[in-house]
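hey so u asked for the seq, here:
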Amino acid sequence: MATLMRYVGGVCAGLEPTWTVRISRYVRRRPLTVRSESECSGVLDLRVKSLDSAPVNETERSVGQKHGAEARAASLHFTRPRPQETESREATSPSTFSNQIDGLRYEKAQPGDKRLSRLVNLARSKKLREQQGKILLEGRRLISEALDAGASPQTIFFTSVERLQELPLSKLAHAGLIRVKPEDIRILSDVDTPQDLLAVFKRPKVSQMQFSEEKYGKALPLTLICDNMRDPGNLGTALHCAAAAGCRSVLLTKGCVDIWEPKVLRVAMGAHFCLPLIPSLTWTDIQTHLPANTTVHVADNCRGTIKEHEFSVASQQQKKAGDYGWVSSRRNPRKIHYEDDFSYDEDYEEDSCSPTRPVLETQPYHIRWASRHTAVVIGGETHGLSHEALHLAGQTGGRRLLIPMVQGVDSLNSAMATSVLLFEGRRQLMHVTE
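ran it, structure tokens below
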């Protein structure tokens, strides 16, 4: 026992210096203090500065270089944001958002953007326009007139900010703005000199549009009825003439080409937003859209002079069908399609030479025929006036309006006849109102 005590005492004497050093270090340590958040942030900032300026001493290296490096990185990450994070915050900040103009943000189209290819399909397909309820407009003037009339824009494609500023930006708050390259616009447009502006609109409804009398003047009691006009150029010109003559409205039968076809829009030059255009009507619908006591006249363009055209009913039946302008006298042997999805209506192939064809009195166009509300029916060049148009003219007391021509000259096309008759009707109605 005595031997064991002496051994323990010797061990304790050997460890005494080490214990003394450890106890003295512990006693010299400062007690823990509770600091506020602001004080802690200041201490951390100072510690970061000291870590940046002072090298790591030997004691830290003995604890472990890996642990020391992780501790320094953690402290630096806590106090200093990463450069990548700073850049991303600046990019998403509204004050530093570069793609914006007058408070409207826009995006840049990337290569292979499918939205550009969809525009081509929208422009070429009537069926797609009807299914999606959208139309495609091109050019500053046409887009501006659509916005003034109350049409709803969905997407605007432009090549430069200067081009976009040509539009009323206050009306584009709910539209998507996409900047594209000029070569993309050239591919999408079907004209040689595109106007660097394309817009997708919701298909307008006549009841929701506004036609300003201050801008276009008061409409005359004159209505244009387009009967089976299938050529886009002729229909666009007819619509332009109707707007220029101050017509009340334009009614179109089911056989006409789509009024939102790109060539019709381009040739009409904004007529779609100057007066009501009501397409795809049956003849029963047309009568409901006409005011009461309306007289309906039909265009009849005959080769020759007026004296040659003063014939009896018997002589009318002996002449060829082509001598009576737009009056169809035989079935068309083939179907003509201006669009990929045109639905042909057999009702427009009726034989107008049948015994039930109404006989209308013919008069030169310059003799008074417009004294109250008047409608003029213009037939297409391919199929001419339909049977229903002649019946409606006979029921309302209308006449055939002849545009006399010199001998040996082919008959005027439907667009030219529309221009002559509408402006003559305007002249006569202006004298009545005066």
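The first strand starts at residue 100 and ends at 101. The chain is about 40% helix and 15% strand.
lmk if thats what u needed
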